[in-house]
Amino acid sequence: MADTRYALLDPLRFPLVARFYKTHYPAGKPKKDEIIWTAENSSGLFGSVRFRQFHDFQLLTGMLIAPDQRGKKQGEAFLNAVQTQIQTKACYCLAYRYLEKLYKEAGFEVIEVSNLPEELSGRYQSYCNSGKDLIPMRHNSMSQL
Questions:
Q1: By three-state DSSP, how is residue 7 classified?
Q2: pLDDT tens digits for 33-53?
Q3: Report field, pTM of the whole predicted structure over 0.90
Q4: Which of 25, 30, 26, 1 is nearest to 14 (CA)?
Q5: Three-class SS state of 53
Q6: Which pLDDT score, from 0 to 100, does residue 59 have?
Q7: Which of 70, 85, 87, 129 is the most exposed place for a label (fewest CB within 10 A)?
Q8: What residue spans of the chain are helical by DSSP H?
Q9: Burial 126-144 (b: 16+ CB within 10 A, else e)
Q10: Closest to 60 (Cα-Cα) out of 23, 99, 3
């Protein structure tokens, strides 16, 4: 991971990220109004994470690590690298249950659905009703405010 670079997406490179999601996670379509971070190494783009902005909070969404890079602690390193973004304002994520440990290690904590902002609670219910096994989480930097 010594040659890994994490950076905010240059808007000119948006098509590259859109193609990356289309290849590896077609349901996760990036939007130009999101804050997008990328992870790259000498082989090119291997990770992306998006932050959808709301008035007084943000949603970490669509984190994607290329299949050939999974199991190499890339997700942990990526979440650590974007902590400055995560801590800019209240940050929530609707994580797949099997990724709970990954997000907990990055400072997120499981919360009750009733503690989600109104804009996220309906989205959470809709995702769960479609068969996704998700848990609501909030970054713990916000519990200290």
A1: strand
A2: 999 999 999 999 999 999 999
A3: yes
A4: 30
A5: strand
A6: 98
A7: 129
A8: 14-24, 74-81, 83-86, 100-105, 118-129
A9: eeeeeeeebbbbbbebbee
A10: 99
